[in-house]
Structures are given as C-alpha cells and as structure tokens.
Amino acid sequence: MINFNESQIIENAHYIYQQRSKIEAIADEICERGFDLLFFTSSGGSMSMLSPFDFWLNYTSNLPTAAMLSADLLITGCNRLTENSVVFMTSKSGDTKETMDAAQYVKNKGAFIVSAVGVENSPLEAVSDATILYAAGRPQELIFYLLIGKILYNKGFFPAYPDFAHNMKNLGAALADVRKQADEKCRQYAASYHQEPYNIWIGSGDLWPMAYSYSMCVLEESQWIPTKSVSSPEFFHGTLELLEKDVCVTLLLTEGPTRTMDERVKRFAQKHTTKLTCFDARDYQLPGIKDEYRSLLSPVVMAAVLQRISKNIEVITSHSLDIRRYYRKGEY
Amino acid sequence: MINFNESQIIENAHYIYQQRSKIEAIADEICERGFDLLFFTSSGGSMSMLSPFDFWLNYTSNLPTAAMLSADLLITGCNRLTENSVVFMTSKSGDTKETMDAAQYVKNKGAFIVSAVGVENSPLEAVSDATILYAAGRPQELIFYLLIGKILYNKGFFPAYPDFAHNMKNLGAALADVRKQADEKCRQYAASYHQEPYNIWIGSGDLWPMAYSYSMCVLEESQWIPTKSVSSPEFFHGTLELLEKDVCVTLLLTEGPTRTMDERVKRFAQKHTTKLTCFDARDYQLPGIKDEYRSLLSPVVMAAVLQRISKNIEVITSHSLDIRRYYRKGEY
Fold first, then answer.
1. Is A138 helix (H, G, I), strand (E, B) or coil?
2. Are residue B141 and residue B222 in the same domain, yes or no?
3. Start and end of every SIS domain (chains A, B) (predicted)?
C-alpha cells in the first residue's frame, strides 16, 4: 500500500484527542457566556471540512447556526453576526489571507473566535479567543466532533456525548483501517478514470461539501482533472441529462439523514452509465467505534477513503499532488 | 433576431406590474403580522431565481432571512423555521412535487406561505396564504423586487422604494432592449463554443445563482453541454489550476457589491486562456430605469442576456431547448 503511514495517522488523531479536556472546557465557556449564533467561516476545502458541523447543529438542535465563505462575509457581511456570536475558523498555516481578513472582521464585530490551526503561534491564533492545535493532516474534524458535540450535550441535544467522545479515542486507528479497506478499490478507480475528460461528482447533506471540495481541491487543483460537482437533489434538476453510457460519475453515499437522496441518484445513474462508481460510507468497518455513532461520521470516513484515491493517483499519473501552475504562485 | 417576441416580453412584465398594489398589500400584511424569518425555498432554477432576494435582505438590512433547497428542507428541516415565519416559494406549473411537499411541510409548521405561480388554480396556490400569478416566462423576479422591496421599505431599509417601484414599470421594455443589445455577442458566443467539451461558468454574490443555474438548467439540461460552475472567490481555491489557453471560461460580472471578486477572476483568466467570455451587467443600457437602481438589477439583466444564448444556440445546434432524455420522463 503506497504512500501510507499508519502510525502517523494514529498519532495525528491522538495529538487532538489528548486535548479533549481543553476542547471541552472551550465548549463549556461558550455555553456559560451564552451566544446568539454559532458561525462557521473559512474558504475552499477548509470551509467544506467545517460545513458538516453546521449541518449537524441544524439537524439535531434548535441552536442558532450559520456558515458562510470568508470572501462573501468580508464583502456582504452576515446580518445575524453580533458581539454575542461565536465564530469557528480553521487554517492549516494559520496565516491564509482571506481567513485572516475574516478573523479581523469578526473580531471587530466583537465576536468570540475559536480557531483550529496546524502550527503554533500563528497570526490566526493571535486574534483568536481560543485555539486548538492539530498536527499535519487529518482528522482536524475530531476537534469539531468534540467541540460541537460538547456544546450539543451541554444544551441537552446529545445526551450520549460522553460515550461518543470516549469512542472518539479510537477514531485515528479506525480511519487508518478504513484506508486499508478502501485502498484497492481506490487504486483501481484512479487507474481506470484518471484520463476521463469530464467527471461528475455527487453527494448530499453532510457529504455534499466533500463531493464539492474533493473534486475541486484535489482533482482539479492538484491533478488538473476537469470535474463537475452537484448535490444529489440538484442532480435531478439538470445534470441528469448529461448521462450516457460512457460518462464518468462518482457518487458518495452518506450514512447521515440524506442517504435516501443518494440512493435515488444511484438507482438512476446505474441505469444510464457503465462508469458509475459509488463510495458508500456504510461499506467501511470502524473498529472500536459503536454503530450508533456511524451516522455522524460519514465526512471523516469519506475523507479517509478518498485520500486513497489521491495517494494512488499521483503515482499513476506521475503528477505529484504538490505541483501547481498558479496557486499561491505570485499575485492574482 | 431569431426567437424574439418583444411585445410578449413587455406584456409579461406588465402583467406582473399591474398587480403592484396587490403585491404591496401582501408585503404590508407580512409586516403587520410580524415575522421571525423570511425564508426562501424551491429547487433548481427556481431556487436560483429566489436566492438573490435572500442576498439582498442580508446585505441591506438586519431582517432575519434564510434560503434552503426544498429537498434538503424536507429531510433535515431548518431549525429557524416556526409558525411565525414567512416562506416564499415559486413554481411555474404550481405542482412540482418537491415544491409541493415542501409547501405542505412549512404549512404544517404553521408558517405564512407566499407563492409566485405561472398558472391559475394550482395545488401550490391552494396551500398558500397569498399567491401572485405571472404569465409564461420571465421576469418573475419583478414580483420579488416589489414584494421584498416593499418589506424593506416598511422596515426602514429602502426609503427610495416608491421611486424604485415606479421605475419597475419600465422593466419589461428595458429587458427587451437588453436582449437586442446582447443578441449579436450571444449569437457569436453560441456559434463559437457550442462544441466545447468543458465549460467553466463563474459568478459571485447575486449572480452566483445565475452562473450555477444557467450552466446546469440550460446548457446541461437542454443542450447536453458539460459544464462546471464555481463562484468567483472559490475559483481561486482549486478550479484556477485547470486554466490553459484553450479552456473555455464564461464569467458573469455583477453590478452588485461583489463585483470586485469578478474583476479579480477576469484579470486572472484573461492571462491564461484565449477562450474567456465576459458578460458584464454594466455593459447594458436600461432605458427608463435610473442608474442608482442598477446595482439591484444584475440578476434580471443577466437573465435577459443569457436568454439570447439559449435562443440562438438551439438554432445553431439544431437541438431544441425542449428535448429531454430523462427529465420528467417516467419515474426516477
């Protein structure tokens, strides 16, 4: 299995999990202060990592929540954001310009900023009211499973949280195992489809951000492969007409509440193209994690699965994931 | 100028404008009842028509507003929606299944439903608390310019509304004129690019929904032309890497607040592809409408411009806009 460092993956998760009491203390502080909005803002792939937590809050509670791209926030604002709001942000480098500008904007509003950052002593940490550090690579999501989970628990919407959080101790090892379970299928997928001229990516609910960001931030950005992403319900409002037997379609199926929408796409697409690939969160075992929590974990399971496409495709195409034509090269 | 019926376009707008006092009375009733949320829900192209009004409310007022696809609403709900909310919906036929299910859902919540419908005595009208009818075709947006404009006026956020609404009397004629101004460029665009294997569509703010829906609901659905749509700020988080000299890029520039984001894309794209087309809302005269209102009107101006691509492309490709492989043909 190429490009795979199991101990590193487990160690990254452990690095976050050992901060559990610190993360829970931040959640407690947020609840004690009170808030009028839980607001998620970031850009590109980072925003897609955060979006499922906005989805989770809306679906399981009446807590006020919203999400918005930092670029849009900077120009149009969000009219719900006040000095009593809590803003969640993330940046690996801790100095992404758009994210920093947005952090300064919400700081000026007087909001309470909680950030997840990949390196110590970054500019983002400097303007944040609370910061949680993570080591390189995923699963940064673990920070938000603990943080948002504890807020939901404190507010009475997630009584199982203590047991859930205890299960999260095994998340790193489970996701390393998912990578092993997924590798062969992902290697074949990469080998079969890396030269396709057009790739339709579909997902819904808590996996729609993943369909959107994996196709754009990995296939387009790092492999220069053209894609289209569309959510499962919206697929039926236009993109369905493109399907013919040789059109490449990749569908992500969630174990979350919107699964029926993905299954509808599957039934339709398998009738109209021979190049349909389904990556189904349900297909992967999660050793050490109770089944009752699986419906929350599709985003992090799918991130692990799709990483095996990335790790294989760069070898197959002899095109390193790190090559860029333009991104962060000069001004634009 | 092919496929163009000027008097019909003007008549469609007049049909809506003559209902101005009825529309304003609905706005007044909404304000008198009070509300905790102004909520927009629909699907596909109809949702894209509504989204700029959610954008407008957020940008210019502190009124509580939200938008959500009907399919998502039906499964996950919206935790801000209560019996004190106002829900705006639209459907040309008035019987779209997803929209009707969503209407029933919000009706059960006890919300106040305002619908815009293309035919009389539809199922959607039957469950709505107030309905405004429009004739076939655009500009249905005119209903919402008057309705949302009057709500903003009543709440103190749009003092110029009476004059704005007076200007709207000329909207139909102005948009017919826009079509004449745009036709030759659109005809050439259709002739040049209808066989492109991949078409990147970009827009931002109040024109992002148009970039999204025109590429999906017209080019994909009715011409079977593969597209990718991405918002102007998000373009720089991945899709930019696809640009080479022969990659077809279509950029919509708004006169709204996010214009700087579109201009950034323009500066970048014109350096890296020879197949960049910019449709700029600023390029079209609007006879009978004051310049100070132009910044609100990009969605309806661009709808008129892009319709000239549609009307020309179906002749050039000998592929009627009405042909479908699958859409509304049998169950799926």
1. coil
2. no
3. 26-162
The tens digit of pLDDT for each residue in A180-231 reads: 999 999 999 999 999 999 999 999 999 999 999 999 999 999 999 999 999 9
pLDDT at B149: 98
Residues in chain B with CB shorter than 8 Å from the CB of A69 are: 231, 233-234
Share of chain B above pLDDT 70, in %: 100
Among B76, B198, B222, the residue with its CB nearest the CB of A205 is: B76
- A122 with A176, same domain: the answer is no
Q: Are residues A58 and A79 in the same domain?
A: yes
Claim to verify: residue B222 and residue B310 sit in the same structural domain: yes
The total of structural domains in chain B comes to 2
Average model confidence (pLDDT) across chain A: 96
Judgement on whether residues A152 and A193 belong to the same structural domain of the protein: no
Residue B277 CA: distances (Å) to CA of A206, A274, B125, B201, B253: 35, 34, 41, 10, 11
pLDDT at B254: 98
Interface test with B, best of A242, A259, A270, A272 (most B CBs within 10 A): A242
Six-digit token string for B17? 């404008």
Asked whether residue A117 is assigned to any structural domain, the reply reads yes
Predicted complex: ipTM over 0.95: yes
pLDDT tens digits for range A24-79: 999 999 999 999 999 999 988 999 999 999 999 999 999 999 999 999 999 999 99
Ranges of residues in chain B with a pLDDT under 50 are none
Q: Residue B169 falls within a domain, yes or no?
A: no
- From chain A, pick out residues whose CB is under 8 angstroms from the CB of B236: 327, 332
Query: Are residue A16 and residue A51 in the same domain, yes or no?
Result: yes
CB pairs under 8 A between A and B: 170
Q: B33 is written with which tokens?
A: 């009842």
Contacts of A214 in chain B (CB under 8 A): none
Domain annotation covers residue A260: yes
Return all residues near B214 (Cβ < 8 A) that are at least 6 apart: B201, B306
Do the Cβ atoms of A243 and B75 come within 8 Å? no
Chain B residues closer than 8 Å to A240 by CB? 221, 326-327, 332
**A241 in Cβ contact with A290 (< 8 Å):** no
Q: Is residue A328 part of a domain?
A: no
> Measured between alpha carbons, how far is B224 from A255 in angstroms, rounded to an integer?
32
Clarify whether residues B231 and B302 are in a common domain: yes
Query: What are the pLDDT digits (tens) for A288-304?
Result: 999 999 999 999 999 99
Average pLDDT, stretch A112-121? 95
Residue A123, preceding peptide bond in cis (omega within 30° of 0): no
**Sign of the dihedral defined by the CA atoms of residues A309, A311, A317, A322, in that order:** positive
Residue A100: CATH number of its domain: 3.40.50.10490
Residue B168 has phi, psi (to 5 degrees) of -65, -15
Q: Which residues of A214-237 are buried (b: 16+ CB within 10 A; e: fewer)?
A: bbbbbbbbbbbbbbbbbbbbbbbb
Judge if B307 and B187 occupy the same domain: yes
The boundaries of the domain holding residue B82 are: 6-159
Whole-angstrom Cα distance, residue A236 to residue A91? 34
Most A-contacting residue of B57, B237, B272 (CB-CB within 10 A), to test interface: B237
